[in-house]
Amino acid sequence: AALTVRFLTRRFIGEYGDMEFIYSHNMTVDGREILFHIWDAPNSQQTEDSSSEEKRIQWADSFVLVYSICDRASFNILPLKIQFIKAAKEGQSQEKVPIIIVGNKRDLHHQRVVSSEEGRLLALSLDCGFYEVSAAE
User: Fold this and answer.
1) pLDDT in tens, 17-75
2) All residues at 6 or more sequence positions from 118 whose CB lies less than 8 Å from its CB, including other chains
3) Are strands 21-29 and 32-40 parallel, antiparallel or unpaired?
4) What are the strands, taking DSSP E only, across the chain?
5) Residue 60: its pLDDT value, please?
6) What are the CA-CA distances from residue 56 to residues 34, 53, 74, 87, 106 (Å)?
7) Pair 100, 130: CB distance under 8 Å
């Protein structure tokens, strides 16, 4: 949620609940006006209803999966999530689904438990893009 709000408003807000939101945002990219629809869904540690997750996957054209570099569990869930997305999206067509893995909280390097190299290697092994960022900075 912090990255989404930062993208939309250029402001940082540090605390969020476990709420889902759908945002719409116009932006000019390469001289073209683009309308983004962003379904911001927090990762639940509880077992999620797979039909809800399936609905979000079918709705989306691309995916940004964010983990905290300070939280190993948020990183470890990524391979399963990506496999689920690819099975649902690529099973229907031959097109590769765009997926980006983002390690957040780069500013908290002193609390880091997931290395940049681990993030890069995971993205490479799953054929995804990779970035490390700080929503706060």
Assistant:
1) 666 667 788 888 899 998 877 777 766 544 455 667 777 787 788 899 999 999 999 99
2) 75
3) antiparallel
4) 21-29, 32-40, 63-68, 99-104, 129-132
5) 81
6) 21, 5, 19, 14, 27
7) yes
Q: What is the pLDDT of residue 130?
A: 98
Model pTM score: 0.78
Beta bridge partners of 32: 29
Q: Where are the beta strands (DSSP E) in 13-132?
A: 21-29, 32-40, 63-68, 99-104, 129-132
Per-residue pLDDT tens over the stretch 93-122: 667 889 999 999 999 999 999 999 999 999
CATH topology of domain 1-132: Rossmann fold (3.40.50)
pLDDT at 6 over 70: no
Ramachandran sector of residue 29 (left: φ over 0; alpha: ψ -120 to 50; beta: rest): beta
Other Cβ atoms closer than 10 A to 27: 11
The answer to whether the CB of 72 falls within 8 A of the CB of 114 is yes
58: exposed, middle or buried (Cβ count in 10 Å: 0-12, 13-18, 19+)? exposed
Q: How far apart are CA 32 and CA 56, in angstroms?
A: 26
Is residue 96 within 8 A of residue 128, CB to CB? The reply is no
